[in-house]
Q: What sequence folds into this?
């Protein structure tokens, strides 16, 4: 291969890889994405992530690097930091985490001692595995005490949180989860944290876009530190952020990220974060998030009308958790049936689920990606009916084929990346 070829050949030079990527493009174009941890980024974000920043290695913070040649790398990361702090109204941000899990792990490492007690939501109640699941490093490195939700309304039982906090005296209380569809009372949790001299960390990964646009209670000033992913409701590059206001925490948080849990910065991803954070500062991002909430409620209402039970009775954010028990189907079969018709969802346990994660009682769904491509309430009402029809007859392959055609036709009315 000549040098000219090396710097000019594109994806067509690798047919196997090209087929897989082209197939994924078509899947996204022709299907409907309802997975809560996914969204659709802009062409701007795609181009920023695919830039020559891929070639550059830096370590440390902007303007304090261990590597030379960082003038433009520093400008990119500083821009991402400035946009993150402006968007969320805070003083400090670390935009380097490769993921939300790294944002959490790095913050834990920076602020806590190994073996300290963390009080966080049980994954079985909707919490996230990075908050101390036994299979993760955070679950192994710290003493984890778990709170859940009430059996009566499937919402956080703040009295239980308070009782557990006074019993176990955690060094940190974690709020936020992976499958909790309701707004959280951050003030109550901060009061509990103050009473036991604990940090309050809010992981707002699934509602960060709503926070940024004033459509959800803001974690600040109640939280000591806030973490989030930059995709999901922020509609951006895959990665994480850490946000805080107290300068005294800066060295510890930054050190927890690097060199604590990860190495050099993925600058091309930071560029994608900067691009999406810039988009989030535009007025149309508020319009988008308002539509997400309206569409999620429409989807939830349609599912409930079709016989599914909505965990906690509905949703305050872009995601919802549906109990399939009334239809007599489990989550693994439900997800497979829907995917065969072009509807991507994920199986999920519900609170107090009698069934295992591999074949749980629920599905987790989101309006984020569908709203990003332009779907409105009418389209989500149609999607809800697709789901109900399919789950009532999961073995009907003719029905799957017909709905797959209707899904493709609906998607074609709202094209992406053409």
A:
């Amino acid at each position: 291969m000549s040098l000219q070829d090396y710097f000019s050949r594109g994806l067509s030079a690798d047919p196997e890889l090209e087929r897989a990527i082209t197939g994924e493009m078509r899947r996204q174009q022709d299907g409907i994405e309802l997975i809560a941890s996914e969204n659709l980024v802009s062409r701007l974000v795609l181009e920023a992530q695919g830039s020559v920043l891929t070639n550059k290695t830096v370590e440390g913070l902007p303007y304090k690097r261990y590597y030379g040649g960082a003038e433009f790398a520093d400008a990119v990361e500083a821009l991402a930091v400035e946009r993150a702090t402006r968007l969320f109204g805070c003083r400090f941000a670390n935009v380097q985490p490769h993921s939300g899990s790294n944002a959490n792990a790095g913050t834990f490492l920076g602020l806590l001692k190994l073996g300290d007690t963390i009080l966080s939501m049980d994954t079985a109640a909707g919490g996230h595995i990075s908050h101390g699941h036994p299979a993760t490093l955070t679950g192994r490195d710290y003493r984890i005490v778990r709170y859940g939700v009430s059996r009566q309304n499937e919402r956080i039982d703040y009295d239980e949180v308070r009782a557990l906090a006074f019993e176990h005296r955690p060094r940190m209380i974690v709020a936020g989860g992976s499958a909790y569809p309701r707004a959280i009372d951050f003030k109550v949790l901060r009061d509990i944290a103050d009473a036991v001299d604990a940090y309050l960390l809010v992981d707002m990964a699934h509602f960060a876009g709503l926070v940024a646009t004033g459509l959800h209670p803001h974690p600040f000033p109640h939280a000591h530190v806030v973490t989030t992913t930059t995709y999901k409701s922020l509609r951006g590059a895959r990665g994480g952020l850490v946000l805080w206001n107290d300068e005294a925490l800066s060295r510890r948080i930054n050190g927890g990220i690097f060199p604590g849990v990860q190495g050099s910065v993925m600058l091309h991803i930071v560029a994608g974060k900067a691009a999406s954070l810039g988009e989030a500062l535009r007025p149309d991002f508020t319009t988008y998030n308002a539509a997400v909430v309206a569409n999620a409620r429409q989807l939830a209402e349609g599912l409930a009308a079709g016989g599914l039970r909505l965990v906690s009775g509905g949703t305050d954010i872009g995601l919802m958790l549906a109990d399939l028990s009334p239809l007599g189907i489990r989550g693994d079969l439900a997800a497979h049936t829907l995917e065969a018709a072009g509807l991507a969802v994920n199986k999920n346990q519900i609170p107090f689920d009698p069934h295992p994660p591999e074949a749980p009682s629920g599905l987790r769904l989101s309006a984020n990606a569908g709203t990003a491509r332009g779907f409105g309430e009418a389209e989500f009402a149609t999607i809800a009916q697709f789901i109900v029809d399919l789950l009532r007859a999961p073995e009907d392959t003719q029905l799957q084929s017909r709905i797959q055609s209707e899904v493709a036709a609906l998607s074609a009315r709202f094209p992406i990346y053409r």
Notes: The longest helix spans residues 283-305.
